[in-house]
Structures are given as structure tokens and as C-alpha cells.
Specification:
The protein is of the alpha/beta class. 45% of the residues lie in helices and 23% in strands. Residues 1-60 form the HTH lysR-type domain.
Amino acid sequence: MTFSLDELHTFVTVAREGNMTRAAGKLGVTQPALSWSVRRMEEKLDHALFVRTKKGVVLTRAGEMLLDRAEKLRREWENLTLDIREGQHEIRGSYSLGVHPTVALYTLPRFCPDLLASHPGLELRLVHRLSREVAEDVIELRVDLGIVVDPPAHPDLTRVPLYRDEICFWVRDKEAIEAPPSLVVCNSDLPQTEPLLAQAQEAGLLHQTRVMFTTELKLVEAMVASGSAVGLLPATIALNAVNGAFHRLPDTPLDRQIISLIWRADLQTSKASKAIRQAIVEALQQEPPVRTD
């Protein structure tokens, strides 16, 4: 048993007017049609809502309970529609942003603090997943916006390139280029890991006898920073290492990437969404976390 908003509006109008004739006039319907609507609501509830008197109608106990809830629902609905209308024209509201946690480390600080400080009514909910999962979330309407690596071509996606990155082999010290450590550490989640390792080994460019896999890029960075390993890393991490930029092993294969902002153009039309996109694009195109050109 459910009531439509129109039915609740009809009920509230009759309850306020206390007279079927006046309520019918206010609603722009005939009195027989209004009486039929009220009877249908009473049948749905299996309770009388009004007692008919010579002067009009009076609420029953069930009618009083329904009126209290109906008034609250009406106010909530009005507030919701107001929020939706204002949300289209004001920079406020809650939006979800999907981004790989490591990508987030190097991108969010470049735009997020200023964006949120400028718009106190704006809220960003972060969703940290692999880039391919974030892209799927945006396509399937689970996430509003995404900052992803090499987003797929999809008819529902709008893609704006932000900056370029590249994955390759790195060592901590320049001297280690001639005699690199015997251990290679790689991230098993990266789709580039297996082909780059295979290419380097087939070409005889890597003489390391041991390979260690992890799902944490920051652990790969830490192992390289210790001087104990060669690491397969994005340049964003390698060139922004805490204790100084790493050195790329020359002649080893690399994979170039494009980090892009993605969204569904058919949905992200509000002023707030446009402000978020503008802040991200301006910050990361003008001052990218890495330059590989």
C-alpha cells in the first residue's frame, strides 16, 4: 500500500479546508472526483480518514496521524526540490571523486584545499580504487567524477587529459646505474608490470635474479629509497621521492600513460560539478605533479 504525492496533497487540502466543496474548488476537481479519491485512500489504509458532518468533514484518529506524517513528508519534499534547484545553480552539495590512492597523494593537494576553502557548502567524498575500477564506477553511475590512468574509450565518458606519466625502472643512486641491486620490486596490480619485465629480461637489460611483487606502490618506493632494489615505478613517484629523485635505468623499456579527468556529460551539469572539474583541470594541467616531456 502506497500513496502518491498527489494523493497526499489531496488529503492535506481536504483536512485543512474541512469541507469537500471548498477543497474541490482549491484543487480544481469536481466534488465527486475528490470524494472518490478520499475513499480510495481510506480503502488503502482500511481506515476512515474523515467523519462527514453537516458542516463538512472532521479528521478521525487515523486521519490525524496521517496528517502529521503527510505534513512532514510535504516539507521534506519541498526542501528536497529546493535543494535540487539551488544545487544546479550554486556551488554546494556532495560529490564523489574516484581516484587511485597513490594518484590521490600527488594530485588532491594541488586543488582540493583551495576548492573546499572557496566553497564551504561543497563536500567531496573520495573513493579509492584501481583506475579501471574507478572508470567502471563512473560509467555505472556509482561515482560522479574520476581521476584515472588511461581511461577507456566509452560513449558515455567525457575525458580531459591532465598530465603525462611513464612507468619505468628506477634506482636510488646514479652510481647504481652501472651496478644496480640484484632485486627488482614491482607492483602486481599494474597491468604494465608483466610486459615491461618480460621486455627487459628478453632484451637482456635486467640481470637481476630476484623479483618481488607487492600491491603497494609506496613500498616499491621505499625499497628503492633504501638502495636495496630496482623499482618499477611511475615517474610521478620516482621523481618526487622524499629524499631526492631516483635515477632511471637507461635503455630499459617504459610505458607512457595519460592521467585524465572523466565524468558522464549527461549527468554532471550542475554549477558545483563544473567548479570541481575546472579546479582539477586548471591545477593539474598548469602544475602537474611530474613533467615527462
